[in-house]
């Protein structure tokens, strides 16, 4: 079963690479960027979902590299996990110009890939990283919480209904938030520990 899941995820990654109809495809080509499909275990109990890749991610073709990736690695290490133990992805799989929020037409193109990733991996828990990813996941799977601020939601466990059954959604501040607000560092570490029960 795991091999089949891994193959399905590889197929999604290939489709994303060839996604010429994406509004972000010309920007990707013009700057020599790579698309950023999800990475990690096809059998993961925990899926981490961010908003969209930044410049370093688009250069590497992998989610959460650079400084934000280092913070995420430390957070995973605090749960005795490596990247290979979880599945890490984004709502949008190409870098928006200037790291702006993805637009509705971009989300419409990329969201089906994320929904397929969730259906294949069948996570027990989803850690949504940041406001944008949290709102997307809650709108799609939960009966409550969407539209509320991260200050209200962070570290809580919300119940969601995914195609494979019940899923727990844990809104988390984005790892990069610590670079803009050092006071969040301890909060982010504490919130991340909520995921320990799903390891």
Itemize the secondary structure elements and their pairings.
Blueprint: H1 2-17, H2 25-31, E1 39-40, E2 46-50, H3 55-60, H4 66-77, E3 87-90, H5 104-121, E4 125-129, H6 131-141, H7 150-153, E5 158-162, E6 165-172, H8 177-180, H9 184-192
Parallel strand pairs: 2-3, 2-4, 4-6
Antiparallel strand pairs: 1-3, 5-6
Helix pairs in contact: 1-5
Name some characteristics of this structure.
alpha/beta, 15% strand, Uracil-DNA Glycosylase, subunit E, 199 residues
The rough form would be described as globular
The structural domain count equals 1
Number of helices: 9
The CATH architecture comes to: 3-Layer(aba) Sandwich
Terminal CA distance: 20 Å
Q: Major sheet: order of its strands? A: 1-3-2-4-6-5
Summarize the entry for a quick read:
With 199 residues, the protein is an alpha/beta fold. The protein has nine helices and six strands, in the order ααββααβαβααββαα.
Task: Tell me what you see in this structure.
The mean pLDDT is 94. A six-stranded mixed sheet has the order 1-3-2-4-6-5, sandwiched between helices. 44% of the residues lie in helices and 15% in strands. The protein has 199 residues and is of the alpha/beta class. The chain has a single domain (2-198), classed as Uracil-DNA Glycosylase, subunit E (3-Layer(aba) Sandwich). It is built from nine helices and six strands.
